[in-house]
Amino acid sequence: MNKACPICLDTFKNPYSIGCSHIFCKGCIIKWLDNNNTCPVCRQNFIGNFPIPMTLITSKYKTRKITEYWRGFKTYVKIHQMMDVYYNEIHGTENSCIYMNDIFKYIYENRWIFNSNRIVYNGFGGDRFKKVLKDKLKEFSKHPNFKESKIWQYKFRDILK
Question: How far is CA 105 from the centre of its chain?
Answer without folding.
Answer: 15
